[in-house]
Amino acid sequence: MYKDVKELVRSKWFQGILTGVGMAVIALVIFQAGMFVGYRKAAFAFKFGDNYYRTLGDRGPKPFQIPLGSKFIDAHGTAGRIIDVNVPTFVVEGPDAVEKVIRIGSDTEIRRFREAATSSDLVADDFVVVIGTPNDNAEVDAKFIRIMPPPPVR
Fold it and tell me: Hey, where are the domains in the chain?
């Protein structure tokens, strides 16, 4: 019997089945990773709509009239003008006219150009670039904030 099993494992038929199963497992892992990333982006966009007016008051259009276009809101940061500061959060209006709430944590690195800065250096009408991760309150937990000069006027 041992000889039969050894021959079976070495056969091209068994090797083909094993290769097919291995490729199917790899495809499923890639598919699952894509679903995980898509779920995170969709959850952020969904919660953003739920919390829009609770966070921003009565600014801008009604939630169902927000011009989101055909893509999800970028959940991992933004760049734009600060419109309100209430530490530990502040609101940034991005180039797509979408306002995002940014949460400053104890591990957030803040810089003005290359020099170190603090949350007290953030003021309305400053331009910033923010990199972070989305949280369950439709906010971006900032990991890095850079205060920039205003963009050139066209």
Answer: 1-154
